[in-house]
Design goal:
globular, alpha+beta, 9-stranded antiparallel beta sheet, binds pyridoxal-5'-phosphate, single chain, about 25% strand, 17 strands
Length: about 350
């Protein structure tokens, strides 16, 4: 297989269509036989559930080339089960988890020419998603759905090193206490766009959302979970029923405990204690961990001792260990790395 001639290291994080995508349709209570197609467009009724009432959810994961030259995907079974949870909460049909994983692999295999080479820092980003494609006008779940996965090559997240971010405590809320914060629904992002555009206009990279009920506890940002490191080297992540369960964060907690021998805690984190932490990072598939250097709460600054030039030492160790596992330089826990044959 000949690789596409792309400038891998200079790709951004944008949509760069590849040859094949996977499509399956749900109608009359059953999924069609899914298939690969070269058609990158979707045609549907103007009255589709997704267009009227935002009935949609998505996933994000990456395929990449390991040190040994194998093309792999990282824990796609967790994306499958998380999407199943999203679908159940949104009254959408579940796409069978084993078929989801097979479909991910089929898309990667068909687009192998777009999987960036080892060492480029680039990856093939996979976007599984589902939406209500059948007509609804009275509020109800759509009668038909489409499940789709496309692939797009994306560049290294950090070009020239990871610069710590400056984030602000947001006055907007991300997720209601018994709402949809724990699932990967498009609607969670639609209503966060104003907050992120406003944050950028004010010179911040991201929003820190607090729990909307008491506004005393840390939840997450618009698209990444928090990890904190205490001054005595413990790794702490906030626990809340309205946080999206990041696969990266869950993997990092295992790496911290099992590979680095660190103490780990998933618990409620009060905003009041954030000033006492030594390091802070944001975790998600795109960047693995983005270091946070500063948090601004209505003019009051919290500056982490790790500073604004580089990742904190524990954050760096976590980053190196997880990316080492992903790239095949460090042995992975059973089942984390699935090879595309
Ligand atoms: C996708 C997402 C994350 C990160 O999850 P990963 O599985 O690590 O990519 C975190 N927060 C929100 C709100 C998300 O949508």
């Amino acid at each position: 297989m000949e690789k596409k001639n792309l400038d891998w290291s200079n790709l951004g994080f944008g949509y760069h269509p590849t040859e094949y995508r996977y499509v399956a349709n749900w109608k009359d209570g059953a999924w069609s036989e899914g298939e690969l197609t070269t058609d990158a467009t979707v045609t549907m009724t103007e009255c589709a559930g997704v267009l009227q009432y935002s009935q949609s959810c998505f996933e994000g994961l990456k395929a990449y080339t390991t040190e040994k030259g194998q093309i792999v995907v990282f824990r796609p079974d967790l994306n499958a089960s998380r999407m199943a949870d999203s679908c159940r909460r949104l009254e959408m049909p579940v796409y069978p988890e084993d078929k989801f994983v097979e479909a991910v692999k089929a898309v990667v295999r068909a687009n192998a020419a777009y999987v960036p080479p080892y060492g480029s820092g680039a990856t093939l980003y996979l976007r599984p998603f589902m939406f209500g494609s059948g007509p609804v006008i009275g509020v109800s779940p759509a009668p038909e759905y489409q499940f789709r996965i496309f692939a797009t090559p994306v560049g290294p997240y950090f070009k020239g090193g990871a610069k710590p971010l400056t984030i602000r405590v947001s006055d907007f809320d991300r997720a209601a206490p018994n709402g949809t914060g724990h699932i990967k629904a498009g609607l969670n992002y639609a209503m966060s766009l104003h907050a992120i555009v406003d944050a950028h206009n004010q010179g911040f990279n991201e929003n820190m959302y607090l729990d909307p009920k008491t506004r005393t506890k840390v939840e997450e940002t618009g698209g990444a979970n928090f990890l904190f490191v205490t001054k005595d080297g413990k790794v702490v992540t906030p626990k809340s029923p309205s946080i999206l369960p990041s696969i990266t964060r869950r993997s990092l907690m295992v790496v911290a405990k099992e590979y680095l021998g660190l103490e780990v805690e998933e618990r409620e984190v009060y905003f009041d204690e954030v000033k006492d932490f030594a390091e802070c990072g944001l975790c998600g598939t795109a960047a693995v961990i983005s270091p946070v250097g500063k948090i601004v709460d209505h003019g009051k600054e919290i500056c982490f001792p790790s500073g604004m030039d580089e990742m904190g030492p524990v954050t760096k160790k976590l980053y190196d260990a997880l990316t080492g596992i992903q790239m095949g330089r460090i042995e992975a826990p059973e089942g984390w790395i699935q090879v595309i044959e």
